[in-house]
Protein backbone atom coordinates (compact mmCIF):
# COMPACT_ATOMS: atom_id res chain seq x y z
CA UNK A 1 0.00 0.00 0.00
CA UNK A 2 1.39 3.35 -1.02
CA UNK A 3 2.15 5.91 1.66
CA UNK A 4 4.07 8.68 -0.04
CA UNK A 5 1.89 10.78 -2.33
CA UNK A 6 4.62 13.37 -2.62
CA UNK A 7 6.52 14.05 -5.84
CA UNK A 8 9.50 12.01 -4.71
CA UNK A 9 10.98 10.16 -3.08
CA UNK A 10 8.39 7.49 -3.76
CA UNK A 11 7.69 4.19 -2.00
CA UNK A 12 10.03 1.37 -2.93
CA UNK A 13 8.67 -2.18 -3.21
CA UNK A 14 9.90 -4.46 -0.37
CA UNK A 15 11.63 -6.90 -2.74
CA UNK A 16 13.51 -4.01 -4.33
CA UNK A 17 14.66 -2.81 -0.90
CA UNK A 18 15.75 -6.37 -0.17
CA UNK A 19 17.74 -6.56 -3.40
CA UNK A 20 20.10 -3.99 -1.87
CA UNK A 21 21.12 -6.45 0.82
CA UNK A 22 23.13 -8.67 -1.57
CA UNK A 23 26.84 -9.03 -0.78
CA UNK A 24 29.34 -6.58 -2.21
CA UNK A 25 31.34 -7.32 -5.32
CA UNK A 26 34.49 -5.61 -6.53
CA UNK A 27 33.72 -2.87 -9.00
CA UNK A 28 36.52 -4.05 -11.29
CA UNK A 29 35.13 -7.59 -11.42
CA UNK A 30 33.35 -9.33 -14.30
CA UNK A 31 30.30 -9.68 -12.06
CA UNK A 32 30.11 -5.91 -11.80
CA UNK A 33 30.59 -5.41 -15.56
CA UNK A 34 27.77 -7.91 -16.17
CA UNK A 35 25.49 -6.04 -13.77
CA UNK A 36 26.29 -2.63 -15.24
CA UNK A 37 25.93 -3.87 -18.81
CA UNK A 38 22.55 -5.46 -18.04
CA UNK A 39 21.35 -2.18 -16.59
CA UNK A 40 22.42 -0.18 -19.66
CA UNK A 41 20.28 -2.01 -22.19
CA UNK A 42 17.11 -1.73 -20.15
CA UNK A 43 17.64 1.96 -19.33
CA UNK A 44 17.99 2.65 -23.05
CA UNK A 45 14.73 0.83 -23.66
CA UNK A 46 12.85 2.86 -21.03
CA UNK A 47 14.32 6.19 -22.13
CA UNK A 48 13.78 5.31 -25.82
CA UNK A 49 17.33 6.02 -26.85
CA UNK A 50 20.27 4.46 -28.65
CA UNK A 51 22.65 6.74 -26.74
CA UNK A 52 24.76 5.53 -23.84
CA UNK A 53 23.14 6.07 -20.44
CA UNK A 54 25.57 7.14 -17.73
CA UNK A 55 24.62 6.05 -14.24
CA UNK A 56 26.13 8.14 -11.46
CA UNK A 57 26.22 7.93 -7.68
CA UNK A 58 24.50 11.27 -7.22
CA UNK A 59 21.04 12.72 -7.38
CA UNK A 60 19.74 14.28 -10.60
CA UNK A 61 21.15 17.74 -9.87
CA UNK A 62 24.66 16.28 -10.31
CA UNK A 63 23.84 15.44 -13.91
CA UNK A 64 22.42 18.91 -14.52
CA UNK A 65 25.88 20.15 -13.58
CA UNK A 66 27.44 17.50 -15.84
CA UNK A 67 25.33 18.49 -18.86
CA UNK A 68 26.23 22.15 -18.46
CA UNK A 69 29.94 21.64 -17.81
CA UNK A 70 30.40 19.19 -20.66
CA UNK A 71 28.01 20.71 -23.16
CA UNK A 72 28.23 24.50 -23.06
CA UNK A 73 31.25 25.99 -24.82
CA UNK A 74 29.68 29.38 -25.43
CA UNK A 75 26.35 30.31 -23.77
CA UNK A 76 23.23 28.50 -22.59
CA UNK A 77 19.60 29.62 -22.66
CA UNK A 78 17.60 28.31 -19.67
CA UNK A 79 13.80 28.13 -19.75
CA UNK A 80 12.29 28.88 -16.33
CA UNK A 81 8.65 28.27 -15.48
CA UNK A 82 9.15 26.90 -12.00
CA UNK A 83 11.66 26.02 -9.30
CA UNK A 84 13.51 23.38 -11.30
CA UNK A 85 14.02 25.60 -14.34
CA UNK A 86 15.48 27.96 -11.79
CA UNK A 87 17.67 25.08 -10.57
CA UNK A 88 19.11 24.74 -14.10
CA UNK A 89 19.87 28.47 -14.01
CA UNK A 90 21.54 28.35 -10.59
CA UNK A 91 23.65 25.34 -11.48
CA UNK A 92 24.82 27.06 -14.69
CA UNK A 93 25.66 30.42 -13.14
CA UNK A 94 27.34 28.90 -10.09
CA UNK A 95 29.66 27.06 -12.49
CA UNK A 96 30.53 30.38 -14.13
CA UNK A 97 28.81 29.41 -17.39
CA UNK A 98 27.46 32.33 -19.46
CA UNK A 99 23.71 31.91 -19.04
CA UNK A 100 20.51 33.75 -19.93
CA UNK A 101 17.17 32.98 -18.29
CA UNK A 102 13.96 32.90 -20.33
CA UNK A 103 11.15 33.41 -17.84
CA UNK A 104 7.58 32.18 -18.08
CA UNK A 105 4.78 32.49 -15.58
CA UNK A 106 4.72 29.65 -13.04
CA UNK A 107 1.80 27.37 -13.84
CA UNK A 108 2.12 28.09 -17.58
CA UNK A 109 4.13 25.99 -20.04
CA UNK A 110 7.31 27.05 -21.80
CA UNK A 111 6.25 28.55 -25.14
CA UNK A 112 8.29 27.09 -28.04
CA UNK A 113 7.81 30.23 -30.18
CA UNK A 114 9.29 32.43 -27.49
CA UNK A 115 12.21 30.03 -27.16
CA UNK A 116 12.82 30.23 -30.92
CA UNK A 117 12.60 34.01 -30.76
CA UNK A 118 15.22 34.16 -27.97
CA UNK A 119 17.50 31.79 -29.86
CA UNK A 120 17.38 34.04 -32.91
CA UNK A 121 18.21 37.14 -30.87
CA UNK A 122 21.58 35.92 -29.52
CA UNK A 123 24.07 33.12 -30.15
CA UNK A 124 23.61 30.07 -27.90
CA UNK A 125 25.11 26.62 -28.17
CA UNK A 126 22.81 24.93 -25.62
CA UNK A 127 19.24 25.09 -24.38
CA UNK A 128 18.13 23.71 -21.01
CA UNK A 129 14.55 22.95 -20.05
CA UNK A 130 12.59 20.88 -17.55
CA UNK A 131 10.17 18.29 -18.93
CA UNK A 132 7.94 17.90 -15.87
CA UNK A 133 8.10 20.99 -13.65
CA UNK A 134 7.46 19.38 -10.26
CA UNK A 135 6.98 22.70 -8.47
CA UNK A 136 3.88 23.64 -10.49
CA UNK A 137 2.67 20.40 -12.09
CA UNK A 138 3.33 21.51 -15.68
CA UNK A 139 4.57 19.27 -18.48
CA UNK A 140 6.55 21.28 -21.02
CA UNK A 141 6.28 20.47 -24.77
CA UNK A 142 9.80 19.18 -25.33
CA UNK A 143 9.27 17.79 -28.85
CA UNK A 144 8.02 21.17 -30.11
CA UNK A 145 10.69 23.14 -28.26
CA UNK A 146 13.43 20.88 -29.65
CA UNK A 147 12.13 21.00 -33.22
CA UNK A 148 11.90 24.80 -33.29
CA UNK A 149 15.26 25.22 -31.57
CA UNK A 150 17.00 23.07 -34.17
CA UNK A 151 15.28 24.98 -36.96
CA UNK A 152 16.92 28.15 -35.64
CA UNK A 153 20.27 26.50 -34.91
CA UNK A 154 20.96 22.89 -35.93
CA UNK A 155 24.10 22.85 -33.73
CA UNK A 156 22.28 23.64 -30.50
CA UNK A 157 22.38 20.98 -27.79
CA UNK A 158 19.13 20.28 -25.93
CA UNK A 159 19.35 19.36 -22.23
CA UNK A 160 16.18 18.03 -20.63
CA UNK A 161 15.57 17.46 -16.93
CA UNK A 162 13.06 14.62 -16.76
CA UNK A 163 13.65 13.98 -13.05
CA UNK A 164 9.98 13.66 -12.14
CA UNK A 165 8.68 12.04 -15.33
CA UNK A 166 11.16 9.55 -16.83
CA UNK A 167 10.13 5.99 -16.09
CA UNK A 168 6.46 6.99 -15.69
CA UNK A 169 5.83 9.02 -18.81
CA UNK A 170 6.65 8.23 -22.44
CA UNK A 171 9.83 10.18 -23.11
CA UNK A 172 11.17 9.79 -26.62
CA UNK A 173 14.72 10.92 -26.06
CA UNK A 174 16.01 10.29 -29.58
CA UNK A 175 12.83 11.10 -31.52
CA UNK A 176 12.59 14.44 -29.69
CA UNK A 177 16.23 15.24 -30.43
CA UNK A 178 17.31 15.42 -26.79
CA UNK A 179 21.09 15.51 -26.31
CA UNK A 180 21.11 15.02 -22.54
CA UNK A 181 18.06 13.45 -20.93
CA UNK A 182 18.62 13.21 -17.20
CA UNK A 183 16.64 11.79 -14.33
CA UNK A 184 16.91 10.61 -10.72
CA UNK A 185 16.22 7.20 -9.18
CA UNK A 186 13.76 8.31 -6.47
CA UNK A 187 10.74 9.38 -8.52
CA UNK A 188 9.00 7.38 -11.26
CA UNK A 189 11.70 4.70 -11.14
CA UNK A 190 10.57 4.03 -7.54
CA UNK A 191 14.04 3.44 -6.16
CA UNK A 192 15.83 4.87 -3.16
CA UNK A 193 17.51 8.24 -3.84
CA UNK A 194 21.19 8.19 -4.76
CA UNK A 195 21.43 7.30 -8.44
CA UNK A 196 21.03 9.47 -11.50
CA UNK A 197 20.80 8.49 -15.17
CA UNK A 198 21.65 10.51 -18.27
CA UNK A 199 21.21 9.51 -21.89
CA UNK A 200 23.94 11.45 -23.68
CA UNK A 201 24.30 11.95 -27.45
CA UNK A 202 27.53 11.75 -29.48
CA UNK A 203 27.08 15.46 -30.22
CA UNK A 204 27.61 16.22 -26.53
CA UNK A 205 30.82 14.18 -26.43
CA UNK A 206 32.10 16.04 -29.48
CA UNK A 207 31.37 19.32 -27.74
CA UNK A 208 33.01 18.13 -24.52
CA UNK A 209 36.28 17.51 -26.39
CA UNK A 210 36.49 21.27 -27.00
CA UNK A 211 35.91 22.24 -23.36
CA UNK A 212 39.08 22.14 -21.25
CA UNK A 213 37.75 22.23 -17.65
CA UNK A 214 34.87 19.83 -17.36
CA UNK A 215 35.62 18.80 -13.79
CA UNK A 216 36.47 15.21 -12.94
CA UNK A 217 33.58 13.40 -11.24
CA UNK A 218 31.05 14.25 -13.93
CA UNK A 219 33.41 14.39 -16.92
CA UNK A 220 31.44 12.73 -19.72
CA UNK A 221 34.64 11.80 -21.60
CA UNK A 222 35.94 9.96 -18.55
CA UNK A 223 32.57 8.28 -17.94
CA UNK A 224 32.58 7.30 -21.61
CA UNK A 225 36.01 5.68 -21.37
CA UNK A 226 34.82 3.49 -18.50
CA UNK A 227 31.33 2.72 -19.78
CA UNK A 228 32.98 1.12 -22.83
CA UNK A 229 34.04 -1.60 -20.37
CA UNK A 230 30.73 -1.47 -18.43
CA UNK A 231 32.43 0.28 -15.53
CA UNK A 232 32.59 3.64 -13.78
CA UNK A 233 35.66 5.79 -13.02
CA UNK A 234 34.93 6.00 -9.27
CA UNK A 235 33.43 3.41 -6.91
CA UNK A 236 29.77 2.94 -7.91
CA UNK A 237 26.82 2.70 -5.48
CA UNK A 238 26.69 -1.09 -5.81
CA UNK A 239 23.74 -1.67 -3.46
CA UNK A 240 21.64 0.84 -5.34
CA UNK A 241 22.60 -0.80 -8.62
CA UNK A 242 21.30 -4.12 -7.29
CA UNK A 243 18.01 -2.38 -6.56
CA UNK A 244 18.01 -0.78 -10.01
CA UNK A 245 18.68 -4.16 -11.66
CA UNK A 246 15.65 -5.65 -9.92
CA UNK A 247 13.43 -2.62 -10.47
CA UNK A 248 14.17 -2.51 -14.21
CA UNK A 249 12.80 -6.04 -14.44
CA UNK A 250 9.75 -4.98 -12.49
CA UNK A 251 9.17 -1.97 -14.76
CA UNK A 252 9.55 -3.97 -17.96
CA UNK A 253 7.39 -6.82 -16.72
CA UNK A 254 4.58 -4.33 -16.08
CA UNK A 255 5.20 -3.18 -19.68
CA UNK A 256 6.13 0.35 -20.67
CA UNK A 257 2.81 1.14 -22.32
CA UNK A 258 0.92 -0.18 -19.28
CA UNK A 259 3.13 1.82 -16.92
CA UNK A 260 2.66 5.03 -18.89
CA UNK A 261 -1.11 4.40 -19.12
CA UNK A 262 -1.28 3.83 -15.34
CA UNK A 263 0.37 7.20 -14.71
CA UNK A 264 -1.99 8.87 -17.19
CA UNK A 265 -5.00 7.23 -15.51
CA UNK A 266 -3.88 8.39 -12.05
CA UNK A 267 -3.44 11.95 -13.35
CA UNK A 268 -7.00 11.84 -14.67
CA UNK A 269 -8.33 10.60 -11.32
CA UNK A 270 -6.45 13.31 -9.39
CA UNK A 271 -7.51 16.06 -11.79
CA UNK A 272 -11.18 15.06 -11.72
CA UNK A 273 -11.16 14.92 -7.93
CA UNK A 274 -9.37 18.28 -7.60
CA UNK A 275 -11.54 20.13 -10.10
CA UNK A 276 -14.71 19.08 -8.29
CA UNK A 277 -13.50 20.21 -4.89
CA UNK A 278 -10.88 22.87 -5.58
CA UNK A 279 -9.33 24.03 -8.89
CA UNK A 280 -6.30 22.99 -10.88
CA UNK A 281 -3.27 25.24 -10.75
CA UNK A 282 -1.51 24.18 -13.95
CA UNK A 283 -2.67 25.40 -17.35
CA UNK A 284 -5.11 23.09 -19.16
CA UNK A 285 -3.53 20.96 -21.87
CA UNK A 286 -0.13 21.03 -20.14
CA UNK A 287 -0.81 19.22 -16.89
CA UNK A 288 1.68 16.81 -15.43
CA UNK A 289 0.95 13.09 -15.52
CA UNK A 290 2.91 12.47 -12.30
CA UNK A 291 2.03 15.31 -9.94
CA UNK A 292 -1.22 17.25 -9.65
CA UNK A 293 -1.01 20.75 -8.23
CA UNK A 294 -4.26 21.71 -6.55
CA UNK A 295 -5.18 25.37 -6.18
CA UNK A 296 -6.16 25.61 -2.52
CA UNK A 297 -9.37 27.55 -3.16
CA UNK A 298 -10.91 26.35 0.15
CA UNK A 299 -7.87 27.55 2.05
CA UNK A 300 -7.50 24.34 3.96
CA UNK A 301 -4.57 24.04 6.33
CA UNK A 302 -2.21 21.74 4.43
CA UNK A 303 -0.25 20.97 7.59
CA UNK A 304 -3.45 19.85 9.33
CA UNK A 305 -4.38 17.74 6.34
CA UNK A 306 -1.04 15.96 6.57
CA UNK A 307 -1.49 15.45 10.31
CA UNK A 308 -4.88 13.86 9.54
CA UNK A 309 -3.38 11.68 6.80
CA UNK A 310 -0.57 10.56 9.11
CA UNK A 311 -3.01 8.25 10.93
CA UNK A 312 -3.14 6.27 7.66
CA UNK A 313 0.63 6.65 7.29
CA UNK A 314 0.04 8.75 4.18
CA UNK A 315 1.26 12.19 3.18
CA UNK A 316 0.94 14.69 0.36
CA UNK A 317 3.18 17.69 -0.46
CA UNK A 318 2.58 21.33 0.23
CA UNK A 319 2.89 23.87 -2.59
CA UNK A 320 6.42 24.78 -3.62
CA UNK A 321 8.14 28.00 -2.50
CA UNK A 322 5.89 31.00 -3.19
CA UNK A 323 2.89 28.66 -3.65
CA UNK A 324 3.14 27.01 -0.24
CA UNK A 325 -0.37 26.77 1.29
CA UNK A 326 -1.81 28.48 -1.81
CA UNK A 327 -1.48 25.14 -3.57
CA UNK A 328 -0.77 21.59 -2.51
CA UNK A 329 0.59 18.75 -4.59
CA UNK A 330 -0.47 15.15 -4.93
CA UNK A 331 2.25 12.91 -6.33
CA UNK A 332 1.08 9.88 -8.31
CA UNK A 333 4.18 8.25 -9.64
CA UNK A 334 6.35 5.19 -9.32
CA UNK A 335 4.58 2.12 -7.98
CA UNK A 336 1.40 3.87 -6.79
CA UNK A 337 -1.71 2.20 -8.18
CA UNK A 338 -4.98 3.97 -9.10
CA UNK A 339 -6.69 2.19 -6.17
CA UNK A 340 -4.08 3.62 -3.75
CA UNK A 341 -4.75 7.09 -5.06
CA UNK A 342 -8.50 6.60 -4.68
CA UNK A 343 -7.97 5.53 -1.06
CA UNK A 344 -5.93 8.67 -0.40
CA UNK A 345 -8.57 10.89 -2.01
CA UNK A 346 -11.33 9.26 0.06
CA UNK A 347 -9.33 10.06 3.21
CA UNK A 348 -8.91 13.68 2.08
CA UNK A 349 -12.69 13.82 1.50
CA UNK A 350 -13.22 12.75 5.11
CA UNK A 351 -10.89 15.55 6.19
CA UNK A 352 -12.88 18.04 4.07
CA UNK A 353 -16.19 16.85 5.56
CA UNK A 354 -14.83 17.57 9.01
CA UNK A 355 -13.99 21.12 7.93
CA UNK A 356 -17.48 21.81 6.58
C1 LIG B 1 12.06 18.45 -12.02
C2 LIG B 1 13.14 18.27 -11.02
N1 LIG B 1 14.40 18.56 -11.37
C3 LIG B 1 15.43 18.39 -10.52
C4 LIG B 1 15.21 17.95 -9.25
C5 LIG B 1 16.37 17.74 -8.36
O1 LIG B 1 16.63 16.38 -8.35
P1 LIG B 1 17.56 15.69 -7.25
O2 LIG B 1 16.95 16.04 -5.93
O3 LIG B 1 17.48 14.24 -7.62
O4 LIG B 1 18.92 16.28 -7.43
C6 LIG B 1 13.92 17.64 -8.82
C7 LIG B 1 13.68 17.18 -7.45
O5 LIG B 1 12.57 17.16 -6.97
C8 LIG B 1 12.87 17.81 -9.74
O6 LIG B 1 11.61 17.50 -9.38
Key attributes of the depicted protein:
14 strands; alpha/beta; 16% strand; Aspartate Aminotransferase, domain 1; 42% helix; 2 domains; 356 residues
Overview of the molecule:
The protein is of the alpha/beta class and 356 residues long. It folds into two domains: 239 residues, 3-Layer(aba) Sandwich (Aspartate Aminotransferase, domain 2); 100 residues, Aspartate Aminotransferase, domain 1, CATH 3.90.1150. It contains twelve helices and 14 strands. The strands form three sheets. The protein has a seven-stranded mixed sheet with strand order 2-10-9-8-5-3-4, with helices on both faces. Strands 1-13-14-12-11 form a five-stranded mixed sheet, covered by helices on one side. The protein has a two-stranded antiparallel sheet with strand order 6-7. It is globular and about 65 Å long. The protein starts with a strand and ends with a helix. The model has no long low-confidence stretch (mean pLDDT 98). The site of pyridoxal-5'-phosphate (PLP) has 13 residues, from helix 3 and helix 4.
